Amino acid sequence: MNPYAPHYPQPGHGFPPPDTAPQNGAGTAGFVIGLLGLLFSFIPVIGVIAWPLVVLGLVLAGIGLSRARARRATNKGLAVAGLVCSAIGLLMCVLYTAAFSAAVSSPPSNSTGTVLGAGVPDTSTEQSSSGAARTAGIGDQVQDGAFAFTVTKVETGREALGDGFLRSEAQGSYVLVHVTVTNVGTESAMFTSANQTLLDDRGREFEADAGAALMNVPGSESFLTDINPGNSVDGVLVFDVPEGLAPAAIELHESMFSRGVVVSLAG
After folding, report:
1. Roughly how many angstroms between the first and final C-alpha of the chain, as a whole number?
2. Which residue segment(s) compose the domain that 177 sits in?
3. CA angle at residue 261 from 97 to 44, to 5 degrees?
4. Contact 203, 195 (CB under 8 A)
5. Tell me: the pLDDT tens digits for 20-59?
6. Which residues contact 156 (CB under 8 A, 6 or more apart)?
7. d(CA 192, CA 222)
8. Which CATH number fits the domain that encloses residue 157?
């Protein structure tokens, strides 16, 4: 053997073995399934399918995190994100189930939209000089179930809300409906913007943008807010509507199962 000949290291000798840690398949699957469960958990009725998704997401993300901690897998971040998404989704499922159980077990409530304006006794049957029934409007207090609502102000034409990376830009323009909600019942009840609907003069319905309100309207108590009997909260309901649209009315609900009451926003 020539002692001066170049020597090349053989495979497996002289170099450290490459990193062969497998990708975290369980953690990735847990994140994807947990995210789907979280998204479905916000949809009334259909959200029932979120239950198996968030539970499976928790299990898979937990397995992925355990493997990552044992250095038998990578992508620890996805496993953690999967746990967070699944946990939030599970919380939403529990809250909706509790609301459904409360609605089913409670007796039928007065959801006819009686106007309870200050100093005005039951004007729901009051008629004007022309004989037309009086319609509740801004400043009137109306009742649906255990909640008494008073729309105090309406803002239109807002193209964006907030600043910085949390800033939300409307697809059209934002309508902000300020409302005071009082629990006139005998038990705690949950107020949420998801149960409220904006109407235009063509009868079209617009759902509230809970995310924009939660991130960019400080102090708005319109997202899953528990109100004890006798207490009141001030909420801001945010709706993304076509640019230039003037809202005609808003339909307010104690819960997704209540009849609701309509308040005119025109004028």
Report:
1. 102
2. 134-264
3. 25
4. no
5. 556 668 878 878 888 888 888 777 666 677 878 888 888 8
6. 173, 175, 176, 246, 247
7. 5
8. 2.60.40.1240
